[in-house]
Design a protein that fits this description.
The protein has about 300 residues and is of the alpha/beta class. The chain has 14 helices and six strands. Strands 3-2-4-1-5-6 form a six-stranded parallel sheet, with helices on both faces. β2, α3 and β3 form a beta-alpha-beta unit. The longest helix has 24 residues.
């Protein structure tokens, strides 16, 4: 590890040492080095890692999710990585309950729980809980899927913008799952999701937590994103997506995630092979900016790499 990388590990260890009762959570933009940092710190303090990633949680979505390698999983025990089947639903509230249970189990064995992942809503749900929301409606969701099939993703987002602009401004038009959920809540209850969240306020604190992220310049992060995506493409990512599609998992939620969506478009003939890597890098950079926007609203300790 470089001296700069070592200084980041040392800074993270100091945070853990100075806040022994707090939950340690490594968050931050994709490709910033969260996994490597979490594993290094876990090995040093007797920690075990709870994955907070909405793609890594699925089995078979391995390469393009940046899932910890078999060696990394042997080095440090991981929870909530590869625990759902590809077509299973994943929601923040269900993950948060399983994560809370894992925190208790880890602490009961005298170990240190460490949360690591880029799905910050999930981390927030664990730390502060979520506003009470109605259950899912298969009928409403099917109606939304029909609208997307007929008129495109933008049409669904336009409907949400007209009914709940506060939530719509925080959701990307391509994020069909969350846009559909926001509309579903409104249609089931007559109240916009923004009102439910405003009332809840995320004011509770179930676990005092230290949020830690690695700070990178835009240039450094772009280089890391590009190098990572190129490596994944060279080591079987396209074959992985082909196999998932052949098994009937084209409708899996994770298949619409950043990177997987672009590989699928290439396989469908909608994107030239030579344009695949640039398309993945562009989409990932947009995603990283959205993650940074989320985190700028919170008290995060940023550890600098440059």
């Amino acid at each position: 590890m470089s001296s700069n990388g070592a200084s980041v590990v040392d800074a993270a260890l100091r945070i853990a040492e100075e806040n022994p009762g707090d939950l340690l959570a490594f968050v931050g933009p994709t490709a910033s080095g969260k996994t490597a940092l979490a594993i290094e710190v876990a090995e040093r303090i007797g920690g075990e890692i709870i994955g907070a990633d909405s793609v890594q949680v699925y089995r078979a979505f391995d390469i393009g999710s940046g899932k910890p390698s078999a060696d990394e999983m042997r080095r440090v025990r991981h929870y909530l990585v590869g625990v759902l089947e590809p077509m299973d639903p994943s929601v923040a509230s269900a993950w948060a309950e399983r994560a809370a249970q894992a925190v208790g189990e880890i602490r009961a064995r005298g170990r240190t729980p460490i949360v690591c992942g880029g799905s910050f809503l999930w981390v927030k749900a664990l730390v502060r809980g979520l506003a009470p929301m109605p259950g899912a409606s298969a009928e409403i969701r099917a109606h939304h899927r029909d609208l997307v099939d007929r008129a495109g993703r933008g049409a669904l987002h336009d409907r949400l913008r007209g009914l709940d602009p506060a939530i719509a401004t925080r959701l990307h038009p391509n994020d069909v799952v969350r846009v559909s959920r926001a509309l579903e809540v409104l249609e089931l209850t007559g109240r916009p999701m923004s009102a439910w969240q405003r009332e809840h306020g995320f004011a509770e604190t179930r676990f005092p937590t230290q949020l830690v992220a690695i700070a990178c310049t835009s240039e450094t992060l772009t280089a890391r994103i590009s190098a990572r995506a190129a490596h994944w493409l060279a080591t079987g990512w396209i074959d992985e997506v082909e196999a998932l599609l052949a098994r009937g998992f084209g409708g899996a939620r994770a298949m619409s995630s950043v990177g997987y969506a672009q590989v699928r478009s290439m396989l469908a003939g909608d994107l030239a092979r030579e344009d695949l890597l640039p398309a993945i890098v562009r989409a990932t950079r947009v995603f990283a900016r959205r993650q940074r926007t989320w985190l700028n609203r919170e008290r995060v300790t940023w550890l600098g790499l440059g």
